[in-house]
Amino acid sequence: MDDLYGRSASIMESQQKLELFISCRGLANMDTFSKSDPYVIMYVKRNNQWSEVGRTEIIKDNLNPNFSKSFIIEYYFECQQPLKFTCNDDDGHGQYDFIGSAETTLANIAGARDQLVMLNLNNGQKKTGVLVVRADQVRIINDKIIMQISADNLPDTRFLPWHSTSPFFRLYRIRKDTNQSLLVYESEPIKSNLKPIWKRLDIQAQKLCNGDYFMPIRIEIWDYRTSGNHEHVCSTDFSVNELQGKNNIKKALLDKNKKYSGVIIFNDLKLIEKPSFLDYLQSGTQINLIAAIDFTASNQSPKTPSSLHYIDDQYHRMNQYQQALLAVGEILLNYDHDKKVPLFGFGCKPRLHNLNTPQTLHCFPLNGNPQDPEVFQMDGIMQAYNYAVRNVQFDGPTYFNPIIQESMKIAQVCKDMGTNTYFVLFILTDGEIHDMKQTIDSIVAASHLPISIIIVGVGDADFTNMSILDDDDGNLRDSFGKRTQRDLVQFVPFNQFKSNPELLAKNVLQELPDQLVDYMLLIGRKPGQKNFINLGQFDINQYSQQYGQQQQIIQPNQQQQVPQIPQQQFQNVPPPPSQFQQPLPQPYTQTQQVYPPQQSSYPSQQMPQYPTSQLNQFPPQQPAVYPQQQQIYPPPNYQQQQQQQIYPPQQTEFQNKFVQGLANTNFLGQHITDAQQQQLNQQLPQFQYPPQEQVNQNGIQPQTNPYQQPKQPPHVPNNPYGL
């Protein structure tokens, strides 16, 4: 059977993948005063080790749960593919009680009758329940289904006059061959409402009907009960094909006795042919990484072994910050064409060679260069981190808003200029933030920009409130009640995956492709034509120049010129980890500038020039050092020729990611004169922390618009595509 687009089933089913749906029956109750809150973890065995595939959602107070979160796994006929399922009772704050586990193989599930197996859950020798696994073949299709569902005249299942039915609905996929019902979606409940209008349904066609628009879909209305014993109200069946091209479709709802129980209303159904992540990559979209690291006092001194920033100079073991940077950064840099990363720190007093201030900064360049905060590849990231962590005074509190605003400005510039770039802000932090309201306001404002925010929680702190930011259901609202237009935040606690960097990277980045595609659909941008390279006329040197390759291509019989860097020895400087060892830099030919107290957090006001007599002195006279150490460590050698830096940076010629015209535009893309530009160079964003609340006439506390304050954009590299 062909689908609505004329694609044959044989083509769509050529990819061998299975979707596994999980249910449990008769679970042992692990709680005293309530029922268990179960969830299931699925593992697959690779190289004789169990590797986590994913987790279902947590269902409260239910010993017979049907999980809507399913698992999609590659299927190989010639392999057994061992699987293990563990069922736990969630106790909150990362704690759980083990209920039981069961093992099987994917081959056993695929070969079972109706592709359904029932496995005993065991805790030691004790049976603690039954795990039901049902498989369905995945048909590869990228279409998305959007529609509004509401109901009318629902029956009241309550007997108290002040409380009526609190309805929510479930969607089940009905298999034609076996008549099995597979739960694919569950809505939010609406309290005491017999005419509910639920949140707009936004679901992949593969998830809802496996790409078969004639497949029967059952919708069931349930009355929500806090005990978990929800009461079935009524149901009916429909198909996507039945609703296609129509509006305000009403269908009668029937209860278990086939009696009329109200109507269900389908409105504004849209079938969107969704491009894939690879479609955008092949048309030239690149991902640029922006990284930010938490240096607040709660991390403890880097000289203390218990510190999350501890630098192991003896055995060169990486701390949690380094592990997370390496695991995530290596993957994202594959999609960054120039491999240059703006790297920031926050929550400390920097004592860097070019940036030394007694003011606690909540957004500063980690390499100490405000004109160019970028570092090159993973080596540059690790070197900048290793240098900065020894030359900052940890302070606090923890603020995300300045970092997010700075990243939003970079993304806004690229959006206004029409560049085909998507940004990922990668934040590493060890605890709860203290500007949650301002951060939420900025995230909501950033949902219309080409940016995603990835947060990794390091350490053993309670990250419960971080789940507020990672809102996959679109319920995040700012101070004015405005919702995010899409999902753009992903939070992952590092401790859950610290023993498995591959799984950490998977959980951190798994939502990013969909976030990029959702943004492109939001602004109405379809993938462009694929970049075609004629290999018959392929010239490696021309390709290297056009695409900004960092290494020169060596022709035959041509010797490569390797610059000789003199080895300068510094006393008491521990070496970096072996995989990031680099030649030490030349002696500095400029002074360490110490700035007076700033009027704003970042960046500071312009500083006067220092006498030239202070040049060529290293270390500088009277340096301000980190209280816990006796020496200023040398920064990494990013440029062999260093120039005296003025802070804040003066207007310079842009030679990197942004074109020349950016020098005459502000961050909103509005053209200004040279005189206005010179005046704006002296104006910098004023971050007021702790944030000051302002109340308008309506009693709403607004968030300051980060785009109303012009600022010269950072010095960034050439766009290799000339966008």
How would you summarize what this structure contains?
By secondary structure, the chain is α+β, with helices and mostly antiparallel strands.
Write structural notes for this entry.
- The protein has 723 residues and is an alpha+beta fold.
- It has 14 helices and 25 strands.
- It has helices spanning 9-12, 106-111, 205-209, 240-243, 277-282, 320-332, 377-389, 401-417, 436-446, 466-469, 501-509, 512-522, 540-546, 674-680; strands spanning 17-25, 38-46, 49-55, 71-74, 82-92, 95-105, 116-123, 126-137, 144-152, 167-174, 181-186, 201-204, 217-223, 231-238, 249-254, 260-272, 286-294, 340-346, 348-350, 364-365, 374-376, 392-394, 421-429, 451-457, 489-493.
- A hairpin with a 5-residue loop joins β15 and β16.
- The model is unreliable at 1-15 and 547-723 (pLDDT under 50).
Low-confidence stretches: 1-15, 547-723
Helix proportion range: 10-25%
Mean pLDDT: 75
Shape category: globular
Structural class estimated from helices and strands? alpha+beta
Cα distance, first to last residue?
A: 44 Å
Q: What radius of gyration results from the CA coordinates?
A: 29 Å
Task: Annotate the secondary structure layout.
Elements lengths: L8 H4 L4 E9 L12 E9 L2 E7 L15 E4 L7 E11 L2 E11 H6 L4 E8 L2 E12 L6 E9 L14 E8 L6 E6 L14 E4 H5 L7 E7 L7 E8 L1 H4 L5 E6 L5 E13 L4 H6 L3 E9 L25 H13 L7 E7 L1 E3 L13 E2 L8 E3 H13 L2 E3 L6 H17 L3 E9 L6 H11 L4 E7 L8 H4 L19 E5 L7 H9 L2 H11 L17 H7 L127 H7 L43
Parallel strand pairs: 17-18, 17-23, 23-24, 24-25
Antiparallel strand pairs: 1-4, 1-8, 2-3, 2-5, 5-6, 7-8, 9-12, 9-16, 10-11, 10-13, 13-14, 15-16, 18-20, 18-21, 19-22
Helix pairs in contact: 6-7, 6-11, 8-9
